[in-house]
Sequence to fold (109 residues):
Amino acid sequence: MTGFIKTSDLKAKMDNKEDFVLVEVLGPETFAEFHLPGAINVTVDDTFEEEIQKAVPDKNKTVVVYCRDIECHASAKATRRMEALGYTNLLEYHNGKDGWRAAGLPVDS
Fold:
């Protein structure tokens, strides 16, 4: 099942040190510019299925997926592809990295 997560809820998950994986699905150059703290990078491309299963072998683990911003559809593509692989706890962060930074929250680079 895929749900959506708001900025405040994602920040609370991080602050509470909840057990989840944060995945940015944009390319490595974009990830390198800046990303959410603790995020890993798995690009939505031809190797996505193989790479996401290496990065997140437990398909029941909560995974929060994000891309650039509300206009970016890479996170929606990624969650659909992950559902097809059998992942059960997916959350899409629609505001993406730009929304996170615009909210004045810390980023890593």
Observations:
- The longest strand covers residues 21-24.
- The chain has one domain: 2-102.
- Strands lie at 2-4, 21-24, 40-41, 63-66, 90-93.
